[in-house]
Amino acid sequence: LIRVYTLAEDRSPEEVAAELQEQLGGLAVEVTPSVVRAEDWLASWREQRSVVPLIEGWAVAPPWLAAGLPAGTRAAIIDPGWAFGAGDHATTRDSAILLLRWLRPGDRVLDLGAGSGVLSILARLAGSGPVTAVEIDPIAAREIPRNAALNGVEGVEVAVGDAASIALCERYDLVLLNIGARQARLLRTRCDQVSAEGTRLIVSGLAQWSLEGVVKEYGISGWITHETVLTEQDWATVLMVREALP
Question: In this structure, how many other beta carbons lie within 10 angstroms of the beta carbon of residue 145?
Answer without folding.
Answer: 15
